[in-house]
């Protein structure tokens, strides 16, 4: 895959405090890259610099070989999905999705058709005339995703879009986001503090702490060869704890030995094998 974005020596200083320390990485065309780290590590700052909401103190951002470091957000052809949905409460689902299209010279004349198609794509056609307060959190986030997709951005940025949702909704929406990426062949950059979420979605994961990149690699590379103690503790040890708790309660047998539990157990075994292969036989 060709490189879509190249970030070079990115630095951000707030109130004389260095938030980002010479951050360098690339994003490939059609790739799903997760930026994984705890609160305050600088991951959201990177996202806001990439889309142009804030300026870097120094460094360079190149998209398709063109320097966009100083370009306004409207010239970057990126979309962003926020954690808090950022919907207009006085507008319907259709109004929210269509809103930005009306200000686009190329898309204005077909804004209604595009909006309706995107709403159908995310499964909200029956809610098209509802206001946001009539929707669940998951449905509101689908509206936000449809609004972003409607503008056909080359790169979609996600700022912890599922942190406010319940566990069941997160799992469903996670699969939908991955399916959207495949259908639209989108380049996606996804901010999260959830290790399991990053592993489930990503082609590559960039692990951050204190404004620096600790490791950038595929999920397999990070599991098999953690770069340092921080990556081992923050990523692998946390995943192991989740696996141990799942194995304890979902082992097949007795009343729980049905098709659903067997399916869940198979998925857990697959996760166990990738993260802690020495434990696979113990659970069988």
Polypeptide structure, described:
With 284 residues, this protein is of the alpha/beta class. It has three domains: 1-77 and 153-217, Rossmann fold, CATH 3.40.50; 87-152, no CATH class; 231-284, no CATH class. Helices cover 40% and strands 23% of the residues. It contains ten helices and ten strands. It has helices at 43-51, 93-99, 111-121, 137-150, 167-184, 195-201, 219-224, 229-250, 259-275, 280-283; strands at 3-14, 17-28, 32-36, 58-63, 66-67, 78-81, 155-159, 187-192, 204-209, 212-217. The longest helix has 22 residues, at 229-250. 34% of the residues are buried.
Task: Using brief descriptors, characterize the structure shown.
Rossmann fold; globular; 40% helix; disordered C terminus; alpha/beta; 284 residues; four-stranded antiparallel beta sheet; 10 strands; six-stranded mixed beta sheet; 10 helices
Outline the fold blueprint:
Blueprint: E1 3-14, E2 17-28, E3 32-36, H1 43-51, E4 58-63, E5 66-67, E6 78-81, H2 93-99, H3 111-121, H4 137-150, E7 155-159, H5 167-184, E8 187-192, H6 195-201, E9 204-209, E10 212-217, H7 219-224, H8 229-250, H9 259-275, H10 280-283
Helix pairs in contact: 2-3, 2-4, 3-4, 8-9
